[in-house]
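Record type: monomer structure entry
Structure origin: computed from sequence
Chain ID: A
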Amino acid sequence: MKYRTLGRTGIKVSPYCLGAMMFGANGNPDHDDCVRIIHKALDAGVNFVDTADAYARGESEEIVGKALNGRRDDVVLATKAHLPMGDDPNQQGNSRRWLVRALEDSLRRLGTDHVDLFQIHRPAPDTDIEETLSALTDLVRAGKVRAVGTSTFPASELVEAQWVAERRGLVRFRTEQPPYSVLDRGIEQEVLPVCERYGVGTLVYSPLAGGMLTGRYRKGREADTHRARFGFAYLTDERRLDAVEELIPLAREAGMSLTHLAMAFAIAHPGVTSAIVGPRTMGHLDDLLAGAGTTLTDEVLDRIDAIVPPGTGVGTLDMAYHPPALGRPLLRRRPVEERAAV
């Protein structure tokens, strides 16, 4: 594989990043099989592995730790914290109190004394970004973290964090992990340009649009897949299904599978460092690796632009981040008495 530099960290990573979300109870519960999948990816040249404490409540990290025993120094290891890890309201979020403990727990499960990339899994509007960056700075200085990053942060919050880091002399976020695929191109408007401007590397997730760009979800057909059993709404979104029906013949004419077209698209953008692949089975990994050398011509990219225009999206993933005001009416409506006084 041709390795790329992760932002301006100097760290070289593969254009495919092995995502470990499907390892454990939420996907593949067979630890030995998961270890074999990880080893095969490493043997194929993938040197970037991404997990999180919340994936199967730590089980994913434990599996990754087993797989990297004896191979840790050859891997750029990333994990994340923020999502709830218990019933205690303080066992989540971006506070110093939680991040320090969350990292210690992750290091124990991973069987290592440091991670190369520690990411904030989601924004936390109730926590001052200086509080978060201050805690991360101490973790970097303690040698437990090499670089820090974010996931699904809006462009405005990425810029704010860069300014706070500069003015307070704190570590900067060096990476961002947003959703990105042929069907989800919203980050092309602001997030990717901001990342390029500040030298922030991007490892994009769901390049297969949550499975929709595998060809297993078709209009008028009911798919009996692992993801379908979870009842995700995006899998039955008519707009997304219509776009898939246009993309399938395009991939066929280009002489490749829809999966390979989707992965090639994700890593073709100059602002994208690496695309996260999340195989649940060895067969999934084999198919993804088979398309690792696929490239798209300008003609194919132009035709993709005609189906889903740049900077736009077709529906949204169920797991996508939405700012609190979009989901909580009280945050976007003045009190009745104030409205009446106008």
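Annotation 1: The two ends are 62 Å apart (CA to CA).
Annotation 2: The chain has a mean pLDDT of 94.
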